[in-house]
Design brief:
The chain is 14% helix and 27% strand. With 225 residues, it is an alpha/beta fold. Strands 1, 2, 4, 5, 7, 9, 11 and 13 form an 8-stranded mixed β-sheet that branches. A 7-stranded parallel β-sheet has the order 3-6-8-10-12-14-15, with no helix packed on it.
Length: 225
């Protein structure tokens, strides 16, 4: 009996391990989970897909790199705005632009993984006005962790993560152009930065100077997750 029980336990553990491995390797949500458009017309063949709305019911969203044999290059305005059940979202390297308010006010969103391998832009409002509503992840009050990877260059606009009041940990790439993008993130305690001090983009940012005084730790040349 004991041997049989051990076998069942081992099989259960292997099932769990396989499930997590499959997700880590890129088990994308199906195209049917999204509304989307292409850039094509009756005169010109389509070259890319742009996601306009999430209509699935999974709390873990792994946006596909390819839909209908075309690369997914853009997350449009308000595509996930106000969604109250997604908890984790992964955005693939094919995406080049994330538009205003794409994930604004997603109250259950806890983790964001931006795997942007090429030049990309995360759009916000070009303003330091804290009341700006043109912010991609603003007011995601449950958000705790953000991991951003970018192989070439990444631009993050003002107020992109404004008022994410429970955000505590952020990982940023070396090639980043950003300022004032974490306004109102009062619990931010750790920034893992892939570059060294000379690459740091927030030198003249008063918000970060104040955050450091309040206990913010910046880990330079970070090589972890």
């Amino acid at each position: 009996m004991k041997i049989k029980q051990y076998r069942l336990i081992i099989m259960a553990l292997l099932t769990i391990l396989f499930t997590f491995s499959s997700y880590a390797e890129g088990k994308y949500n199906p195209a049917s989970d999204f509304k989307y458009i292409t850039d094509g017309s009756e005169y010109e063949a389509a070259s890319c897909v742009m996601i306009t709305e999430y209509i699935g019911n999974s709390s873990i969203v792994n946006i596909p790199e390819i839909i209908e044999n075309l690369p997914v290059t853009r997350i449009c305005e308000d595509a996930f705005k106000g969604n109250n059940f997604i908890k984790i979202v992964t955005i693939p390297s094919s995406v080049k632009i994330i538009e205003n308010r794409a994930f604004q006010n997603c109250k259950s969103l806890k983790e964001v993984y931006l795997l942007l391998a090429s030049t990309a832009s995360i759009e916000g409002r070009y303003s330091r006005d804290p009341l700006s509503d043109g912010t991609v992840f603003s007011s995601c009050s449950a958000l705790e962790k953000v991991v951003i990877e970018a192989g070439v260059a990444l631009s993050i606009d003002y107020n992109t993560f404004h008022d994410c009041s429970n955000l505590t940990t952020v990982t940023l790439p070396r090639n980043i152009n950003a300022s004032w993008c974490f306004t109102g993130c009062t619990k931010l305690k750790t920034i893992n930065f892939r570059g060294d001090k000379k690459d740091w983009p927030f030198t003249d940012n008063d918000d970060f100077k104040l955050a450091v005084k309040n206990g913010l730790v910046v880990n330079y040349n970070y090589i972890g997750e």
